[in-house]
Amino acid sequence: MTRYGMAIDLKRCVGCQACATACKIANNLPKDIVYNVVYTKTDRDWDADFGTAVVRGAVANDNAGGSFPNCVLEFLPVQCQHCENPSCLRVCPTGATQKRDDGIVWVDNELCIGCAACIMACPYDGVRSMNEDEPEYYLDVTVGEYDAPAHEAGTVEKCTFCKNLIDRGEVPACMQLCMGRARFWGDLDDPESAVSQAIEGRDYHKLREGAGTDPSVYYLL
Amino acid sequence: MISEFPLFIFTTLGGLSAGLVMAMAAFPPAEKPERPWLAPLTALVLLGVGMLGVLFHLKKPALFLLALRNPAAGIAQEAYCGIVLGVLLLALLVMSWRKGEAPRALTWIAAGVSLIMAFVMGFAYVTNVGTAAWANWTTVPLFVAGDIAMGLALWAVLSKDALEKRPFTLATAVVLAVSAATMLLTGLHFGSVGQGAALLYAGLAVTLAGAAVAVVAAKKPAAWQAGALIACALIGTCLARWAFYAASII
Ligand code: SF4
Ligand code: SF4
Ligand code: SF4
Hints:
heterodimer, A: alpha+beta, Alpha-Beta Plaits, 4-stranded mixed β-sheet, two-stranded antiparallel sheet, 15% helix, B: mainly alpha, Formate dehydrogenase/DMSO reductase fold, 8 helices, binds iron/sulfur cluster
């Protein structure tokens, strides 16, 4: 059975923010909404705090940590992990948060009542965002895909794994623009898929596995 | 102000209502009370205000009925319990008003639903694995013991003879002490995840003072003790709940 997942090669990610930008534009995201944040880390403890990012208030995206000659500068792109066992799904009282047979976890904005239970239940801080008020945009024109997700006041949004693109045979927008070729996408159950091939033989890390969510995003080390 | 103020109102008033119903069932008055409708009415009003309060937590309160769709979700389970308890309390109120008393079995059923609701209110937070301070087993006893402690203290005020019964005052002392212990355990857990626990410990001290009042009442009942008990139980539990919701990640 198809089980979509993504691998992100941390050795190849150069922190260029192209995936974050691609996501923002392809999904016509409002000002305060981000699905995909590329964090800067000054350590390699992937499960501790994710690090800093301009979109989260940092002054710059590329500050190394440590002291010479032991400096550390890593980039960690974080979006919804499309967990096998999503903690957001169970707590959603309306059934707005749903998981498709192919593993994609998404939010039906027509059912969402903005209770925020999913935000509090997700162990990956910041991957879900609440549209507190009527969404505002940087541009006066609508950008991105014609079937980009709706953005509605009082509802929660997150990475859709670009299901609109997947369903017409394309790959996620963040992958398309990744200049470091750090992202791999496909069916985790198909050993021939790009994602399975990328993971094959590599050390990898899945974020915060202690939470029991079993993410579908593999970070290649 | 805490971002989860509506939830604070819901679990404090709803929990107080649930605790009162449990106290009513466990320590019924020896004689027919003059105003048998007073306790069920109080419980119903507290529950109603608490459930109205929770609507303010929703960004789209008009669609609140959608929150009943997923029975596995804590919010839905809280709503089911609240609705069933509301109907039972209404029945208790009508019967005690019309006939002077309500069947004991019905009070016990309402008490059972209340206990389940207190448990569900706490357990809903344990499943919030994204909020480290909440996702711990101590959250369930913190809520259940706090609710029963508040309920017993309120029953001391509403019931004419509760304070004169030694089993009641001893039970109240024990529950308040257990509630204080759950605040200590929760405070230790908060500390282990880097969350401030000063208000939890303040709640603990006030709740322990309540337990001391109950011990004094067990030896020598006096009129002032009911007021002191409800003040200590309410303030202690509210301080602990405030600290709890202050740990919210939103
Ligand atoms: S990362 Fe969070 S929002 Fe995404 S599926 Fe997992 S628990 Fe749900
Ligand atoms: S905010 Fe919306 S998606 Fe999240 S749990 Fe509540 S109803 Fe579900
Ligand atoms: S998969 Fe699509 S929605 Fe998700 S982070 Fe990438 S571009 Fe954004």
